[in-house]
Amino acid sequence: MDLVLQLLFTGIGIGAVYALVALGFVLIFRATNVVNFAQGEFSMVAAYLMVVFSVDLGWPYWLSFLIALAGMALFGVIFNLGVYYPLRHRTYLPVIIATIGASILLSNSVLAIYGPQPQVLQGWFDTPGIQLGPVYLDSQYLLIIGVTILLVLFNFWFFERTLLGKKLQATSQDKEMASLLGISVSTMIMITFIYSAVLGGLAGILVAPVLFVSIQMGSTIALKAFAATIIGGFGDVAGAIVGGLALGVIETFGAAYISVPYKDGFAFLVLIAFLVFRPQGIFGERVAEKA
Amino acid sequence: MKLTRREFSAGLAAGLAAPALMRSAWAQGATIKIGMCVPVTGPAAEQGLWAQNGAKLALAAVNKAGGVLGKQVELVIEDDQTTNPGIVLAFSKLAAQSDIVAFLGSIRSTQVQAMAPDVIKVGKPVMIGGTNPDLTHSGNPWLFRFRPNDNYSGRVIADFGVNTLGKKKWAIVHSTDAFGTAGGKALTEALTKLGAPPVLDQGYANQSQDFTPVVLAVKQSGADVLGTYFTFENDLGIFARQLRQLGVNIPWVGSPSVVAVSSTKLAGPALFGTYGVADFAEDSSDTAKAFGKSYRDAYKTAPDNQSAWPYDAITILSAAINKAGSTDPNKIRDAILATQKFAGAEGEYNFDKNGDGLHGYNVVKNDKGKIVYDKHIDFND
Predict the structure, then answer these.
(1) Of A182, B23, B213, B351, which residue is the least packed, with the fewest Cβ within 10 Å?
(2) Residue B104's beta-bridge partner residues?
(3) What gap in Å lies between CA A238 and CA A245, rounded to an integer?
(4) CA nearest A207 in B: which residue?
(5) CB A261 to CB B205 under 8 A?
(6) Which of B46, B203, B214 lies nearest to residue A118, judging by beta carbons?
(7) Which residues have CB under 8 Å from B308's CB, separation 6+?
(8) One digit per residue, pLDDT tens: chain A, 291 residues?
């Protein structure tokens, strides 16, 4: 039983990381109908910003955190203007390829500036964790889980209860209709990119003390997060969270009880099973092909 | 001006001969080229940088001492992207340049395995750092190893743990790539020979974000000592931290990555008190100390095995070409194999017929973040 609880805690912790990145995927997909393959690099860039401010410049952790997130907001603007906006009238394919290109450009730029050595970033708390009976709770994972819960509540409130959230929803559902109603579609898409960049950045900063700061930190998480969005139902906010958590728990238990070397295999096995038997994901609606 | 027939033919002959003459003059004035496949990008880009540093340091020393066959030596670097297809591509790009006389391959066994068939086709010496024993034992005459192979690391880890620490209940954790699998196997064999077969043999896939299941397996096995073969330092860092967090504090003797500079930095206190076999230990010999000093002077950081083996490879290769007196691949091969009692940064090189230069390891300890030399264990067979 102790073992199960310990595995459950880590599974949820790592799942929450996937969920945070998956959320960024989903928001951009809803707004623009394209998958942003540079989402993982958003996390990586933010983690490096955090290293620059808090480690290299020695600024206080909370200040570095705020500046890094502000930096990510700006980054979202630049990404939107540089990658999405020029291609917005084209089909989804050039945009997706542009995001892949951006992802390669970002990781190699950071490599060129910062060098290949992984960096250490301290956690938010001084205490590494709490021993709760037989289970060890890593403080950084606790923080990640807490932030994920808050974000779920925030997203619900933001998209369902605020005018801006509703405008964003309207834009994602039908751009023409939204613009007929006087909503500025490009502003809404800009806001979505900013929000996704900040979310991805938040994930990166939170996970950095656990996984270290490295060039490839984003891509490994993003691959799982992408699987999580498909499991949850592409384009669904709740689906991204549930998919991420499910993936984290499934791979942790699969590793512990079946095989450690095939840990990543379980995640993708679940993904394949969903693609075959329930392609719309847990929360997705069945999209009927129109004749 | 009138041109006589004789002048015309002389001019024509000179004109025709000029490119050939120029080429031979250019070739004599040119450099001796050594190709190097090294990760410039990808997960091991960090280690690739250290390898380049080590090679360049040796190159500078060789060139300062007059170069090779009276020419300066030049390093041609190609990015292997830390992947198997990457190194195959990098090697074929280098091999296409016919004036490259020898190559430096990878420290990663899996990459050496990937490029090995092409190495046979090209038929020129390739210096490697990969430690999977099979690499030099599969009948490929062109691979020369500048680090002790895993048969020795496994035997040294087992010997040190069983005879020096007195521990017999072993848990083995290893990567499932070529390096980790071969290492885990060698350690299991060595332990079985010493009468202490492992109670747990646990593989993991590279770039895992979480090691909780592995740590719990170690904990449940009841082992009193841990032996590891980790390929990537950030995997090792995550594992080490989770190991300590979940309360596993048994002695730990691991492959070289446990005592690598970057692991020590990443994992911090989680690695205090661990032992590692290290092909390179700065305090193990005068040559190693001298290498350490010049590396520090040049790069302001401590060297480790990632930079020590390319340093030795360039040094010994240059000496071998000088001794061979030619860049003929077969003559270079014979000269490398004839290298005996050569003091390198990694240890004393005594090449055997397989192309293995080193036959033992240093055991070092992480003493509160400082890597200190403990003892050297060498085997004669």
Answers:
(1) A182
(2) B36, B127
(3) 11
(4) B209
(5) yes
(6) B46
(7) B54, B279, B280, B288, B291, B344, B345, B346
(8) 778 999 999 999 999 999 988 988 888 888 787 888 999 999 999 999 999 999 999 999 999 999 999 999 999 999 999 998 888 888 888 988 999 999 999 988 998 888 777 888 988 888 888 888 888 888 999 999 999 999 888 988 988 899 998 998 888 888 888 899 999 988 998 999 999 999 999 999 999 998 899 988 888 889 899 999 988 887 778 888 899 999 999 999 999 899 888 888 888 888 899 889 888 888 776 554 444
Q: For the CA atoms of A252, A255, A260, A266, what is the dihedral angle to 10 degrees?
A: -90
Chain A, chain B: beta-carbon pairs less than 8 Å apart: 84
Burial letters for A27-52: b for 16+ Cβ neighbours within 10 Å, e otherwise? bbbbbbebbbbbbbbbbbbbbbbbbb
Residues of A with Cβ-Cβ distance to B247 under 8 angstroms: 136
Domain ranges of chain A: 2-215
How far, CA to CA in Å, does A261 sit from each of A3, B207, B208? Answer: 19, 11, 9
Nearest to A183 by CA among A173, A168, A202: A168
* Inter-chain residue contact B46 with A115, CB threshold 8 Å: yes
Cβ-Cβ contacts under 8 Å, B209 against chain A: 14, 17, 210-211, 220-221
Structural domain boundaries of chain B?
31-148+283-349, 151-278+364-378
Domain spanning B31-148+283-349 has what CATH number?
3.40.50.2300
Q: Do domains B31-148+283-349 and B151-278+364-378 have the same CATH topology?
A: yes
Residue contact B234–A212, C-beta within 8 A: yes
CA B57-B60-B63 angle, to 5 degrees, is 150
Report residue A229 as tokens: 């969005």
Report helix angle A39-50 to A61-79, nearest 10. 140
CATH topology for B151-278+364-378?
Rossmann fold (3.40.50)
Tokens 């997060």 -> residue? A225
Min CA distance, B255 vs chain A (Å)? 19
Question: Chain B: residue nearest A255 by CA?
Answer: B213
Nearest residue of A to residue B216 by CA position?
A3
